[in-house]
Design a protein that fits this description.
Blueprint lengths: L25 E9 L4 H6 L2 H13 L4 E10 L9 H11 L5 E4 L2 H4 L3 H14 L3 E4 L4 E2 L8 H29 L12 E3 L7 E3 L1 H15 L4 H10 L5 H10 L12 H9 L7 E3 L2 E4 L5 E4 L6 E3 L9 H32 L6 E3 L6 E5 L5 E5 H6 L10 E3 H30 L5 H33 L5 H32 L7 H10 L7 H7 E8 L2 E6 L2 H18 L1
Parallel strand pairs: 1-2, 1-3, 3-4, 12-16
Antiparallel strand pairs: 4-5, 6-7, 8-11, 9-10, 13-14, 14-15, 16-17
Helix pairs in contact: 5-6, 8-10, 13-18, 14-15
């Protein structure tokens, strides 16, 4: 990319020097971060430990006061998309803090390029002092500290090496048949003596056997979910929460559903075997996870006590496969037909609970919209006394409303066109309109010049003092243009007795004016949202409702003026 020239800089510059900020104590933001519960965490201490160390450091200084504390727990240092860090940068931009303190350089980040960019460019640009306590680094200390880039490189390689070692350690445990997952499979819990060993939870194991029996007896996923929820059985998610806290949660807080039932039925761990390496997770790239092909999975037999007989498990998997294939064949055609008939995808909702309405086709071939929450109840979720309405009725009312709008618009458009033609203020309005366009182009030009200044400064084409001077000049010009623009727009309103139907709206109306039957394309163009309150009670909002209301109001005003 070509380097920018200094020709964008105004030729006339005030000789006045930039006012320097009055010396004052630094308002510090203490930033603490840990990745996750690993050996690294134990080595560097908890977030609380980091904060305490930084507070003690500040207490021994004369020119720094703690203004805010920012924390990021379970966030990798290899990317800067962290809530605590983001909030800290916002506070810097708004002048809330002018100093950043971390325990050591790696707490800021482990990516060499990004970390160096903040230390060497971003913080200096905002006049922010940066300190790393245990690394004895202070950006306001005289002289260049050449150890900073070196430490950043070391941190980055350490992060990559840590990820590799972690992966290698897991694979070594896999070969020994050890469990390395974060969460136990349903029916098991981690041994208190060895966290890499699964032991049977007899209560959950009993429920697991019942699930397999019910499925082989012909019960569907939803049937099983309903039965488990009725009996107050904790779902796998709540079961793990119970293991972690020791307090039994309410079964209604996270009930069983189709997905949970199917996942339990397909988990090979219940047979006593294990499978590893189904996913690959990159710690260095922000804990991104991707699924690996089955050919790369690692299977291990008899790694722990089994709950479900292996032959029974095989039969269940075969039944699931057959059901899935039959379901796909049946619903590919059905779903295709439903998609073609659903004119309001994402736009129609239940007035009772706010959930989306789902289009369903009865055996008779009649299409109905039903509440999505009511449909989910069949999967074990909460029920809404939702509404059920024929698609035919909705379509008729939508078409009737669209046609009434189109007719009223065309009638009003004709009336307004006649009255506008006699307007004496049209010439002045157009002159002001040209002035508005000119001012907006000038505003865009000056704003671009101001934004280019930072690149000139970062590339050392101008000094910091020049940057501050030119930035102030451009800011004043922008403010003056905005004030002038406000004046012209206000004047234009006074001269404007005219009304123009929005081009897109008029085009849509003229496109569909001759249509006598509602189509999906027509509904897409006109319908904004539909709320179903009852069998014959709908709240239909069209895309141009606001413009239509303004047009009707203006029509009444024009008619009153003509009397």
């Amino acid at each position: 990319m070509a380097r920018k020239s200094r020709k964008n800089i105004p030729e006339v510059v005030s000789s006045a020097t930039v006012q320097t900020e009055v010396s004052r104590p630094f308002r510090a933001g203490l930033y603490a971060r840990i990745s996750m519960e690993t050996e690294e965490t134990l080595e560097r201490g908890t977030i609380e430990t980091q904060v305490e160390l930084m507070k003690n450091f500040v207490a021994d200084t004369e020119d720094i006061a703690v203004a805010e504390i920012y924390k990021d727990s379970d966030y990798s240092g290899t990317n800067f998309d962290r809530p605590g860090f983001t909030q800290m940068m916002e506070d810097i931009k708004h002048g809330k803090i002018n100093c950043v303190i971390v325990k050591d350089l790696s707490r800021l980040g482990r990516n060499y390029v990004e970390t160096s960019n903040y230390i060497e460019r971003v913080f200096p640009f905002f006049h922010v002092r940066f300190l790393a306590v245990t690394d004895d680094f202070d950006s306001f200390r005289e002289g260049v500290d050449l150890t900073v880039p070196l430490k950043n490189i070391i941190n980055e390689f350490y992060s990559k090496d840590l990820a590799k070692k972690s992966s290698s350690a897991k694979k070594a445990l896999w070969k020994e048949g050890k469990f390395t997952g974060a969460w136990e499979p349903y029916g098991y819990r981690k041994s208190e003596q060895d966290r890499h060993q699964l032991v049977v939870d007899e209560e959950a194991a009993g429920h697991l056997r019942e699930i397999f029996t019910m499925y082989m007896d012909g019960c569907s996923y939803s049937d099983i979910a309903k039965r488990l929820n009725t009996d107050g059985i904790l779902s796998p998610t709540l079961q793990r929460e119970y293991y972690k806290t020791g307090e039994k949660p309410s079964p209604e807080s996270k009930p069983w559903n189709n997905y949970e039932v199917k996942r339990v039925l397909q988990d090979v761990h219940c047979t006593g075997d294990s499978v590893y390496g189904k996913y690959q997770q990159s710690v260095f790239q922000g804990n991104k996870q991707r699924n690996l092909p089955e050919s790369e999975w690692l299977y291990a037999e008899n790694t722990h006590e089994g709950i479900i007989d292996k032959e029974l498990f095989r039969q269940v998997q075969e039944k699931i496969r057959e059901f899935t294939e039959a379901y796909k064949k049946k619903h590919q055609l059905n779903n295709g037909a439903i998609r073609n008939h659903n004119f309001y995808t994402g736009k129609i909702r239940c007035g009772g609970c706010g959930n989306r309405m789902v289009l369903s086709r009865e055996k008779t071939g009649t299409f109905y919209y039903i509440c999505g929450a009511d449909a989910n109840h069949k999967s074990g979720g909460n029920q809404c006394n939702g509404h059920r309405v024929k698609k035919e009725y909705v379509d008729e009312d939508v078409l009737r409303l669209i046609q009434s709008h189109m007719k009223a618009v065309l009638d009003t458009e004709k009336l307004i066109r006649e009255m506008n033609s006699a307007s004496r203020n049209q010439t002045q309005y157009l002159l002001l309109d040209k002035e508005v366009g000119k001012l907006r182009r000038e505003l865009s030009r000056i704003s671009k010049r101001k934004s280019d200044l930072y690149e000139d400064y970062s590339e050392r084409l101008i000094t910091e003092e020049e940057y501050m001077q030119f930035s102030r000049i451009y800011s004043n010009e922008i403010e003056n243009i905005k004030n002038r623009l406000d004046v012209v727009l206000a004047a234009q309103v006074r001269y404007s007795k005219d009304y123009h139907i929005e081009e897109g709206w008029g085009k849509v109306i003229h496109t569909y004016m001759s249509k006598r039957k509602l189509t999906k394309e027509m509904a897409d163009a006109f319908v904004d949202s539909i709320i179903i309150h009852g069998k014959y009670d709908y709240e239909i909002k069209l895309v141009y409702d606001d413009q239509f209301a303004d047009l009707q109001k203006l029509k009444k005003e024009k008619e009153a003026q003509s009397r």
